[in-house]
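Figure 2 data, in text form.
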Amino acid sequence: MFQSVFDIFKIGIGPSSSHTMGPMVAALRFLDALRGDAEPVPGAGPPARLVVRLHGSLGFTGKGHATDRAVTLGLLGFRPDTFEADRAAAALARLGEARVIESQGLPPLAFDHATDIVFDYGPALPGHANGLVIEALDARGQRHLAETYYSIGGGFVLTERELADGRSGVAGPAVPHPFATAVEMLAACRANGRSIAGLQRENERAHRDDKALDEGLARLWQTMAGTIDRGLSAAPATLPGGLGVRRRARAVIERLEAERGSNTAGPHTINDWIMAYAMAVNEENAAGHQVVTAPTNGAAGVVPAVVRYWLDHVPGAGPAGVGDFLLTAAAIGGLIKRNASISGAEVGCQGEVGSAAAMAAAGLAAVLGGTPEQVENAAEIALEHHLGMTCDPVAGLVQVPCIERNGLGAVKAVAAASLALRGDGSHLVSLDACIETMRQTGRDMNERYKETSQGGLAVNVPAC
């Protein structure tokens, strides 16, 4: 099924697309189900109270990822793409006093954030590592309605039935150039004389006109660039969560600016610029501020950092090419999501930073003039050298190793694009083979290393 650039890249809030944005969307969907035509349990009275149970990775790392806060805000009617921090804080304060959810079209619903969100530390639900169950109870405590949701990565949410039906969370009209694999993508490029960005653009036209597409792409980049700028200008404060991690992006950029033109700045310092751009984004994400999933929040810094590197440091680059960069990256991200996963709770960080690096490498190779075959090679190189990467956030926070990991992922993406452009696009390991290897590796990976904070750095670094 077609993955739009606006499915892969979504404007939202930190710190996690699967643990923050997804649960917020699930809560909104449940309220819609209560208001809509969902069949209540026979004999149940009107809904009077709400209860949420977080399972699997949502249970183990939900506190560090602010999942409880996100679910609460969703029940209060807040959406990730239009989130306003001041309004949210005021709404949470009112709820803390009244302990009642007031939602249009529904009776008052009792809800105590402290007791009505349950963190379940047992086995994950069968459908996915990120599962939550939302229930509405009547005045007697009997179930009125319940729904199981799975947050499958990148802000995508499916009900239990949708997941069983094999839905991807994306629907719409047929596209002119469907492709489910990289082989099919390259064949379509050759058959139609199109670049990967050209294919993706024509497919997008089945959903929206050129004006809406270009305005949407511009808004995505504007939001990404704004996140970089805010991160680079933020004071070196301590990030929330209790680990004591301090922001570093601004200090790194200030030192790089001071070294411009001096004999102390070696050519390798371009890596520091790239890493600072990525870290700026992920420091903003860790602070719970606005970011763009790329393809997830935990990996949100890689693609923007590489775009910024291209615009600010590569001769001949210009804003007109950013759309092609994002369209190319989205095509690669769609292949990975369709055939493996972009969820750290499902396949480890290879599915988050690894996917982001593949997307960024492909986008950069494309705007540097690469052929579709070279672009595919760039994506494969970047993904191949993230295979096996675990997701082991210390204290369940999207900070260590996540912030630095985005910086290194961006550097790898640039290196992968450069290496691919030195060849003619022919190579031994295909992108399809690499994606399938990632899927198998994630399947075989021990659950302790898949965003549960029960292994790796999460148990070897004191979280205090």
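Caption note: The chain has a mean pLDDT of 96.
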